[in-house]
Amino acid sequence: MELQTKDLYNPSMADIVAVEELTETEKRFEIQLPGDTALKHKPGQFVEVSIFGFGEAPISICSSPTKRSTTFDLTIRKTGRLTDKIHLLTAGSKVGIRGPFGNGFNASDFEGKDILFIAGGIGLAPLKSMIDYTIDKRDDFKRIIIVYGTKKPSEILFPSEIKKWQERDDVEFYMTVDHADADWKGNVGVITTLIPPLKLDEENTVAAVVGPPVMYKFTAMALKAKRLPDKNIFMSLERRMKCGVGKCGHCQINNSYVCQDGPVYNYLRVKELEEAI
Amino acid sequence: MHLKNPLTLQNKGYVFFDSETMKTFISFLMNQAELIAAHKKGESSYVFRAAENVDEVILDYPRTIQPLKKFFLPPRETLLNFNLEENDFDVPDMETKKRIFFGVHSYELQAIHILDYNFKRGNPESNYLKKREESLFIGISYTPDEYHFGKSVGLEIEKTEGMCLYIEPMEAGYYMFVVDDNGLKLLTEFSSETVALKTETIKPQPKEFQKKIKYHYNRLPQVFDKVYDSSVWKKVSEKCVGCGTCNLLCPTCYCFDVRDEIELDTINGKRERFWDGCMLNTFAEAAGGENFRDKLHNRTRHRLFRKFKYITEHSGELSCVGCGRCTSFCPANISIIDIINNLIEEVSLNS
Amino acid sequence: MSKPKVAFFDFTSCEGCQLNKLNFENDLLDMLKLVDIVEFREAMDDTADEYDIAFIEGSISSPTCVERIHDIRRRTKILVALGQCAVSGGINAMKNDQPSDWVREEVYGDDKYLFPSLPAMPVRAVVKVDYEVRGCPMSAPEYLHVLKSLVLGRKPEIFDHAVCVECKLKENECVLDKGMFCLGPVTRAGCDALCPSFGQYCTGCRGPVSNINKNGTIEMLKAHGFSVTEAMKRMKLFNTNDMEKSISWGNR
CA of B46 to nearest chain C CA: how many angstroms apart? Predict the structure, then answer.
């Protein structure tokens, strides 16, 4: 049998159609592939974004494919060589896109269930693709609970979306900051402090967790304390990826390639992977 | 778990070459295609390179520095050439050219077989696979030195799978075993008449491996099921300096890094990939600076697990081929055989 | 886009790194197209008040050095340490191992009180350093990489793996295997394994990789027939500040 090989490393040159400044360090970019091609992604998947001379990096897609098909959003934090440069780009600039890659969230794992989203910091960006998806297909899901924590109020992402979530009767939204400023009226404390007061139907609740590496262990403990079964917890893990297609080896956690088997893992699998969290 | 059983010395018969005929044959092959063979480098090292002169081709050598993978997954390879002003790129030609790899040991072939598996699996990668097309391999037997341990990973010296011809040197010349039709075709074209293959049994001098793993290779996956938390890893990492030589020269390691470099005109540049290795400092560093395998003992464990467990779980074959490079080129004299035997010892003590 | 204003300064050093740049031949002209060199004592007389990029050669080893480097830091947007003296103290830091009084007497004799001296320090011990180009002399390809990157407005990509990696990529015959001394297994790459590529051993002039296994390195050198004293001496040649725990600014 003739094996179909692919030029895996050639990016599509996509247009940035809009840029929105979210915080001092985060911007949202709306991207359009050449020829209005649909990205055809699932919530929770990622793309490899590149700028020639500056390199390439994996970035989660933060929009849901439900309402828009020809553009998608990336929320990018300024953290280094490539992302510093991306932050200088404006609408009309071009970036290289490869993907979508990774498994993403499986809607069937969540349908007919109460959904508990737990987002720490920039973890809200990848989760937002799934939050939007569940809100767009609201009838497929029962309760939608969003728990969101950031270090400080100035780091809060997507304020306009958050406002809409807060206004909806069918979305429960809780948030906290680690360190308050003078204007902050809400909760103060790490994200795990929001979990114990939740009233959950543990057998019928599915949690989706994304945040900085340090958050996972403590969130898992808090969810275990709520008697959520392991199989009802999903986590999206972050690793360095050079290829996105299961070759370069950088993202490997024990025997699992995050770019192939992840980034979304069931907690049962995470527990098997000693290097995961 | 039961590992695949490798075939040994499959052949359709043989002819005999004296030394002069062998030289003529090599010249003949050099006219057919690019001929890659072992050559001397420096004082006592060997490298694979394209042959220019028959007399420089080496048939008797322990191992080359870089394995054959360098021809299919080059140490540095340009993935894209780009232009910053036009924000555009083109892909360098990946022309397939016919190459004959001459005088390679069975472990090199097995390593290529494992790389094929990894580059075909999931997303078949054209950069590697295009270079793999049109390759012919002519194997040769070798005398194991203090670092070879092929037999311990199930790989006999005479394992001919993937070869078209197999050479067994003897006192007065060489037996040329025909392994497949490509081999027969080469011999026929060389002698320009029908080749009369001999089939009577010959018994080459048996060759013993000096180094052995204590358990049969079939038992190694079970050993690796039990040694994740072994004390052996930390012991090894006391000696290890993390230079990455074992990764880079391993014939089945294929991890890589990708970097963009621009020219002095700051307009043109290229995206290149380089061999990388999980033993190196920053290999498992993520965007936030967190290093998920920052300790040497974790990295050593990961390297060995990739050879004996992680890939084996779905390929059904060990990813170590017993070439001995990681040991013979290790500046800190760390022996992979010693590591495995220490793990086995620990497992048998604890069971 | 206006060309960045670049200046070069020398502190305690042999000035070999700066000289090295004038030897770039063809690349030198291309380089001049990218930047405006506004101060470069070895090549011109002009001076300027402010710079986009200041390249600093040499270690900080006297009170005057400290004043000067603070002044430069105030006037430059980006500061790059150039060569091992500026990056780690380099060869100059060998004196840090000796009693200061004895060192000054050896060098200046009876006039020693006229020349106040400090231990040889890396530039980063005194002011913020944005980027470093290692080596003695500084590695030319790494310098060009840093310069191109800064002109383009990107962070340079500096490796933290061993020279062995570059030797293996080039398929060099191993120097240690030839019975020679070599610090390649623990010295930072970025020089394209220049010395081993010409059959010479790695002297460690680019400093150790960031989390060097020091005991392992000594054991390795012992296994190759070098005594502990000799191993330490050789490891310290360019890197006294990195190897001596008692000297605190060596660690990052």
Answer: 8
Q: What is the mean pLDDT of residues A259-276?
A: 93
Using CB atoms, list chains with 3+ pairs below 8 Å to chain A.
Answer: B, C
Q: Name which of A239, A232, A220 is nearest A266 in CA terms.
A: A232
- In C, minimum Cα distance to A85 occurs at C154
Task: Annotate A84-123 with DSSP letters as a single string.
Answer: HHHTT--TT-EEEEEEEES----HHHHTTSEEEEEEEGGG
Residue of C nearest to A79 (CA): C155
Q: How high is the pLDDT of residue C252?
A: 39
d(CA A25, CA A157): 10
Furthest CA-CA distance within chain C: 57
A272 located within any domain: no
Residues A96 and A112 in one domain: no
Predicted pLDDT of residue B3: 56
Does one domain contain both A191 and A85?
no
Instruction: Mark yes or no for CB contact B125/A3 under 8 Å.
Output: no
Q: CA B89, CA B112: separation in Å to the nearest integer? A: 31
* Domain-ending residue, one of A101, A131, A160: A101
The pLDDT assigned to B2 comes to 56
Pairwise CB contact (< 8 Å): B264 & C31: yes
Question: Count of CB contacts below 8 A, A vs C?
Answer: 13
pLDDT tens digits, C148-200 = 999 999 999 998 999 999 999 999 999 999 999 999 999 999 999 999 999 99
pLDDT in tens, B26-62: 999 999 999 999 999 999 999 999 999 999 999 999 9
Interface contact A85, partner C, CB < 8 A: yes
> Nearest residue of C to residue B275 by CA position?
C169
Which segments within C88-159 are labelled E, that is strand? Answer: 131-133
* Closest approach of C10 to chain B, Cα-based (Å): 25
Domain range for A38 is: 12-101
In a domain, A181, yes or no: yes
Residues 6+ away with beta carbon under 8 Å from A230: A224, A266, A267, A268, A271
Question: Cβ C160–B66 below 8 Å, yes or no?
Answer: no
Share of chain B above pLDDT 70, in %: 97
Q: What is residue C42's predicted lDDT score, i.e. its pLDDT?
A: 67
| Inter-chain CB proximity B245 and C157 less than 8 Å | no
From the list A47, A45, A43, A71, the residue with the least C-alpha distance to A57 is A47
Task: Based on the fold, state whether residues A52 and A147 are members of the same structural domain.
Answer: no
| Residue A163 domain-assigned (yes or no) | yes
- Which CATH number goes with the domain that contains A204? 3.40.50.80
Q: Are C5 and C48 contacting, i.e. CB atoms less than 8 angstroms apart?
A: yes
**Domain of A62: which CATH number?**
2.40.30.10
Q: What are chain C's domains?
A: 5-152 (3.40.50.700), 163-243 (no CATH)
Query: Is the domain of A94 the same as that of A191?
Result: no
Q: Where are the alpha helices (DSSP H) in chain B?
A: 19-32, 106-120, 126-132, 181-191, 220-225, 232-239, 245-249, 296-305, 312-315, 325-328, 336-350
Predicted ipTM of the assembly: 0.92
| Nearest by CB: B262 against C152, C164, C170 | C152
Q: Say what the pLDDT of residue B283 is.
A: 92
Closest residue of C to B278, CA-based? Answer: C161
Work out the pLDDT band at A1, boundaries 50, 70, 90.
very low
Cβ-based contacts of B278 with chain A (< 8 Å):
249, 252
pLDDT at C251: 38
Please indicate, yes or no, whether residues A111 and A79 belong to a single structural domain of this protein.
no
Query: Does A240 contact C at CB distance below 8 Å?
Result: no
- Tell whether A64 and A174 lie within a shared domain: no
The SS3 assignment for A53 reads coil
Q: Are residues A120 and A226 in the same domain?
A: yes
Does a structural domain hold residue A261?
Answer: no
- Whether B331 sits inside 8 A of C215 (CB atoms) is no
SS3 (DSSP) at C192 = coil
Task: Summarize pLDDT for B183-236 with one digit per residue, the tens.
Answer: 999 999 998 777 778 877 777 677 899 999 999 999 999 999 999 999 999 999
Total tally of structural domains belonging to chain A: 2
Is residue A232 located within the same domain as residue A206? yes
Nearest Cα of chain B lies from the Cα of C126 at a distance, in angstroms, of: 25
> Which chain B residues touch A54 with a CB distance below 8 Å?
260
**Does B329 contact C213 at a Cβ distance shorter than 8 Å?**
no
**Which of A240, A253, A254, A271 to probe the B interface (max B CBs under 10 A)?**
A240
